[in-house]
Amino acid sequence: MLFSSVGFLFRFLPIFIFIYLTFPKYRNIVLLTGSLIFYGVGEPYFVLLLLLSVLVNYGFSCYMFWEPRSPQKNRRKKAARRRKRALTLAVTFDLGVLFVFKYWDFAAGSINALAGQGILPLLSLALPLGISFYTFQMLSYQIDCYRGTLEKRVGLIPFATYVCMFPQLIAGPIVRYSEVAERMISRRVRIRDLENGLKLFTLGLGLKVLLANQIGTLWNLIMTAGAGRLHVLVAWLGAAAYSFQIYFDFWGYSVMAMGLGKMLGFSIPRNFDHPYISRSLSEFWRRWHMTLGRWFKEYVYIPMGGSRKGNGRTIFHLFVVWAFTGLWHGAAWNFVLWGIVFFLLLSLEKRTYGKRLEQSRVLGHIYTVLLIPVTWVIFAITDMGQLAGYLGNLAGYHREEILVGVTQLLRYLKEYGLLLIACVIFVTPLPEKLYWKWKDRWFAVLILLGIFWWSVREIISGSNNPFLYFRF
What we know:
The protein is mainly alpha-helical. 75% of the residues lie in helices and 0% in strands.
């Protein structure tokens, strides 16, 4: 089920909120049940996989906290071994399930291509929605239990509710249990929370439907014309369009998730901080998908040693993190290449010109504005032949006759010019500052009502499309 769908907006959400507010003593059960229904509408069979993962992980966490009777002198050592064993089993299970559903065919196909014959079978399994996100949430819970960050066992219902909570189940943000622990035990939902949450949700809906979906049509038009046969300016226009689309699509989802969380009594963490105003790629990744970056930093980069073991090891740690980051986004070679490109660029920044970029407002912004669209093209195009052609077009190189030239460019600019200007404005902090300043004023409420009904009109007209991060 999509947040930006008529079924969610006018059936699921009103009914769920009514039941949720009517039974305050059973809010975890209501939220868990509603979340499973929400997930089951789109993924009826994979609800069983989600529940299995929840039960298995809960069992491992219980085993981690289990304290059998034993002599005092051996209890601490046995507890340490038990916690390590439980963590190993949990990580193996979670990553094993993720590998089978997301990466098996990619790995088997690559091995078969190298061998020149079908050594390994292809499973052709559908990818469960949100599996990358809820897997990382369960892993963070297990690791926090092992480290002692969570000092006592959590009940099954609170744990299952944390993993399955529908506002962030499908596409994040990736929430740590410690961030919602108190609210899992007790939470109040005030009228003010409902109002503020609904306003945030409406803002996110507008970002998705009125900006991401609309500018996405420009990217689709340019790609349909044929990568490799584009005038250099058309290619850059397409790269800019996709850069706007993926940002407003994912940012819109995250804002909607924050709004829904507020309506339910939770504070879901912020996932974006205006990344396109960054002065370097390092700053960009401190502002983009912040909960994923935090996850890799706290559970991969720092445990390996971070930047504490010399330049050589630091570069290796960055390579591992970015290899995993690329693969996390998708089982295809373009995602691997995307991760390697970021690893190389971030390594260069770290060792050479990074500080100079961030000190120069103009130079840093130009650098970021030019490089980010190129990296998003690598991210977007899974066919390596098409990708090579598009990258060549960005550089002004053409192997074939140009099909989309200056005439079409002028037509695109005429048709999408106002939308492109709106996108440029909304990547800056200005709209958000105005929102927080005026959100309680009467005219702001009228604007939000207009955004809501305009979005609904676009959804009904059939211009709606799935969130891009659903496929990750």
